[in-house]
């Protein structure tokens, strides 16, 4: 419906502009202008419903509350840039409460490994009246199995985040990879896909004619058999590999656009979608190992020292009035 599609685009554009302090404020502005959503006034929930259906408006079919996302048969009515802008504004407006001092945020927790092979522990040096120091520590230091220095948390986390944000492949390269995957899986070209669409539409029209009595049973069955034979000669329109590729792209590509601006308590979840492990050597990030399903979307990031190594950090030995917090 063109009018409804235009309303959806307007909601995305106006929310992404940052001019409104909340979804409710945007709804109030739309109502003040006399604009309605299917005849009803806008409110916070109706604006939220439009924004959360971004994948559907991008042309995808969404099943089971977003757990299964596949390419749809409908045309998209918004652009990925509009979706990304909304995600960025939502991340900027997120105001988490102050975390409990005993529940500090470590985005690389359970992902950081020392070059000796041990998983590093997240710790904080607490000194009354002074700034806390977060760092990642190899447990092998306790029994002299490893002498690697501690890694300052904010430095290695910043290095990984900047590396992920800079290494995301551009959309044109992603499109080329998808075309190559379709070619390798022997999927139909656009012409064959259009032909399949015409045949499926003809089957639907034939069924309607039979339902309304415009065609007798025998001619209906003969024509239906002919159409299905033609469909059977066409290659399959979908492939699980391409579906998995599209699903991963839908989840991973927005991350690189917003990860710098995402609050620290949510960066860890984003990083775990992409990263298998982070290897730290002498207080610096040496390797960032990408999860298998994310590798097609991040270039030049599978191994090697990141471009912005973190400085090594060795906190002072705790004394009276100091304590360590372990995570």
Describe the structure.
It contains eleven helices and nine strands. The longest helix has 22 residues. The protein is an alpha+beta fold and 327 residues long. The protein is 46% helix and 13% strand. The two termini are 53 Å apart. It is flat. About 6% of the residues have low confidence. It has a four-stranded antiparallel beta sheet with strand order 6-5-4-9. Strand 4 and strand 5 form a beta hairpin.
Order of helices and strands: HHHHEEHEEEEHHHHHHEEE
Describe the oligomeric state of these chains in a short phrase.
single chain
Q: In which range does the helix fraction lie?
A: 40-55%
Q: Got a strand count?
A: 9
Uncertain spans, ≥5 residues at pLDDT below 50?
301-313, 316-323
| Largest beta-sheet details | 4 strands, antiparallel
Task: Determine the mean pLDDT.
Answer: 78
Number of helices: 11
Q: Strand arrangement, largest sheet? A: 6-5-4-9
Distance between the termini: 53 Å
Q: Radius of gyration in whole Å, from Cα?
A: 27 Å
Per DSSP, what share of the residues sits in E-state strands of 2 or more residues?
5-15%
Shape, per Cα inertia axes: flat
State the secondary-structure class: alpha+beta
Topology:
Blueprint: H1 2-16, H2 23-32, H3 44-52, H4 54-57, E1 60-63, E2 68-71, H5 80-93, E3 112-114, E4 121-126, E5 133-137, E6 151-152, H6 153-167, H7 171-184, H8 190-211, H9 217-232, H10 240-258, H11 264-274, E7 275-281, E8 284-290, E9 323-326
Parallel strand pairs: 3-7
Antiparallel strand pairs: 1-2, 4-5, 4-9, 5-6, 7-8
Helix pairs in contact: 1-5, 2-3, 6-10, 7-10, 8-9
